[in-house]
# Entry
Amino acid sequence: CSENDASVLLISSVADFSKCTPLKDLSSRLNAIPHVRINHPSDSLLRKIISSTSQSLGVILSNNVVDYMVNHFDRDIKSITDTIKRANNLSLIQKKAIDIKILKSIR
# Structure
């Protein structure tokens, strides 16, 4: 990749590649690559992500709704986005603001 000034990003749920492949040369090369573990966001960061995501979708969420989402729903971006969209669709059908009752009904 250095000839073309390119980069490669490998994503894996496995930290030790020697257990993934019987090829010792390949596993040693993969294990020589720097590893970075990405954990779930903290509660404060998750609140910011939920607020930012809801704003970008044009959805207003109260603080107690955001707190409920932090404590009761999956912590990944896709799940957060899907939850906000589903809650928004239900709130439009019911013609009321998103509240904890709506969140509980889609959980």
